[in-house]
């Protein structure tokens, strides 16, 4: 059945429970032939000739591109953290801002893209800085809605270092609102998740938002 062609999660990844992935499924690369056939059918549905020279390899290319756009399904937090959690007596805000993000709108299968800013207040544990960007990659490279993406990033940072608080702001342009539909080419969507101190203490939240907005 078609639904069995869902992406594989990593065996030891405990963060995937929300996706209800079936670990007996084939690897995602093994799905390439099925995906290529689907894209070939799509080309025919558009009235194109999938056998014309320029389109001969398009179904396979498109399938590979879609696998890349959704490669976050193949990754799990434990793997990318790679033990880069360090004991450190530091309790001031850590902020990485303007992390580029490319994701796929789950409603229209078109991109939404923008930037992510992540802050946390350490509680004797810090995270390798690049790992914040890697967490963004894991969750953005899936079919998403911006709200869920924002929250998943915040929860992942919380699980990784149990900080006193986490704040995540995502600013994105949705191509489904730009190239089609309401066609609002300048619209941007902002979402945020505030956990712990960032939720409870307006001063901490304000400090974060000021830092995010400063250029
Ligand atoms: N909340 C939220 N909505 C999203 C996101 N990405 C796309 N959407 C919205 O999903 C909705 C789908 O609405 P529908 O009415 O079923 O689809 P539609 O007829 O294509 O809607 P229009 O885009 O208004 O033409 C639209 O309002 C999109 O703007 C997202 O990340 N978060
Ligand atoms: Zn959309």
UniProtKB/TrEMBL annotation:
CDD domains according to UniProt: GTP_cyclohydro1
Domain GTP cyclohydrolase I, first and last residues per copy: 37-212
Keyword Lipid metabolism: no
EC number: 3.5.4.16
InterPro entries xref list: GTP-CH-I_C/QueF (IPR043133), GTP-CH-I_N (IPR043134), GTP_CycHdrlase_I (IPR001474), GTP_CycHdrlase_I_CS (IPR018234), GTP_CycHdrlase_I_dom (IPR020602)
Keywords: Hydrolase, Tetrahydrobiopterin biosynthesis
Enzyme class: hydrolase
Keyword flag Hydrolase: yes
Metabolic or biological pathway, per its Swiss-Prot or TrEMBL entry: Cofactor biosynthesis; 7,8-dihydroneopterin triphosphate biosynthesis; 7,8-dihydroneopterin triphosphate from GTP: step 1/1
Source domain of life: Eukaryota
One Pfam family cited in the UniProt record for this chain: GTP_cyclohydroI
Record-linked HAMAP family: FolE
Family under the similarity heading: Belongs to the GTP cyclohydrolase I family.
Name of the protein in question: GTP cyclohydrolase 1
Species assigned in the record: Nesidiocoris tenuis
């Amino acid at each position: 059945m078609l639904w069995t062609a869902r992406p594989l999660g990593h065996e030891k990844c405990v963060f995937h429970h929300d996706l209800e992935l079936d670990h007996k499924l084939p690897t995602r690369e093994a799905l390439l032939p099925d995906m290529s056939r689907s894209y070939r059918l799509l080309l025919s549905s558009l009235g194109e000739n999938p056998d014309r020279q320029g389109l001969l390899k398009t179904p396979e290319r498109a399938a590979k591109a879609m696998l890349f756009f959704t490669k976050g399904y193949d990754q799990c937090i434990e793997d990318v953290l790679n033990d880069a959690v360090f004991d450190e007596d530091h309790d001031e805000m850590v902020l990485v801002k303007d992390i580029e993000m490319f994701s796929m709108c789950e409603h229209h299968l078109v991109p939404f893209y923008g930037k992510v800013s992540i802050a946390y207040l350490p509680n004797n544990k810090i995270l390798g800085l690049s790992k914040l960007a890697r967490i963004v990659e894991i969750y953005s490279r899936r079919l998403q809605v911006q709200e869920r993406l924002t929250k998943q990033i915040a929860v992942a940072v919380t699980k990784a270092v149990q900080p006193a608080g986490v704040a995540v702001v995502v600013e994105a342009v949705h191509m489904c609102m730009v190239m089609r539909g309401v066609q609002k080419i300048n619209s941007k969507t902002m979402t945020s998740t505030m956990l712990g101190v960032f939720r409870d203490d307006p001063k901490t939240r304000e400090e974060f938002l000021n830092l995010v907005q400063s250029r």
